[in-house]
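Researcher: Here's a chain I'd like modeled. Treat it as a single chain, no partners, no ligands.
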Amino acid sequence: MKGEDRAATTSERAVAGRNLSEPRKLDILARAEPDGLKSLAESLLDDLGAVDVLSSRTGLAMVPREDSVTGTLFHLGEVLIAEAHIRVAGGVEGYGAIVGRDLERAMAMAVIDAAIAADRAPETVFAFLAAEAERQAADDATRLAKVEATRVEMEAF
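Model: Modeled as a single isolated chain. Structure tokens:
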């Protein structure tokens, strides 16, 4: 029975993962646990065939923010990123960019993105996305609770 329950959960997660928007999928992949992300990408390579690496590099990206008073955009600073851009059979492209310098992780993200774009991603990809979204939401809630604990109420004079 436990195996059936687990299969149902994986199937339900796969449905939830398929229903995510493309930007949300990329956001989840960019914040995914590195080992799980790389392992998943490795499992997709045989089915994707030849992979052409269009670019694989590190660099600095500007971090834009909006002034809360004037609404004007400004650049808060720069952040180090690793990015990868690939092309698989059929001319389908995949892209990955992560904060930091882990080019393997960026490449793994690009492989998964290409598999989704080529409509060759198995259910495990979408189950992974849904599970990662749940994990990230829990991590965010924990972090927010810690930040909220430091909030100081100030009265206006």
